[in-house]
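call fold(seq) -> tokens
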Amino acid sequence: MTEHTLKKFDQDIESIRSGIIRMGGIVESMVKDALAAIDSGDGETIERVLQSEKEVNSHEKQLDKQIAESIAIHQPTAIDLRFMVSNLKMITDLERAGDESEKIVKIARKLHESGVRYEPLVDMRHMGILVLQMIDNVFEAYSRRDVVKAAEVVRSDKMVDKEWKNMLRTLSSFLIEDPRRTTEFIDHIFVARSIERIGDHMKNIAERIIYLVHGEDVRHEGVKYAEQIAKGDSEEE
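ret:
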């Protein structure tokens, strides 16, 4: 690449990185609003999430196009290509996390408009707090290229999974005890499942940060392996 081409490529990379962070900020706000809507059923909050979902979709298309064009023009190799590929996958996870937030608010609206005074069957706030912390940590890791912080996010997903399994057991027992409220119980299961899925998407992004920085694919290898790679690389640096 010429000096001019290199400068343009560096600008592309920074633009893509900034776009990812902006998209992540929108998704984080969507998740916060979705969690609030479960308890409040507030119409404005629900509508804000629905509108934000369209914005996330727009960001996804724009960033996908930008990355594809940058790859075609600059034909990056090694670490630069790794950056492009990793970010493409992160964009997909962010869009899907936005989709899960949309699912939550649609169910929240249904629960609050059912004509029966809404009372939560299980407390999902703790799992919600864990997931919001994962989002915050994953973007700190992304911004700082902090693989240790990314590995912490991978471990946090285990806590979210545990919360989800406990809720599923509780809600399933309610379903057996009072089958007349089957629809309501299933709606709560879907909400809890969506929160858990958002955690999964943050874990995916965290794993891709480790790959982005060090070229080591830690997917499907377990938390300890991700931590081992992150700490080992940190020590070498």
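The chain has one domain: 1-231.
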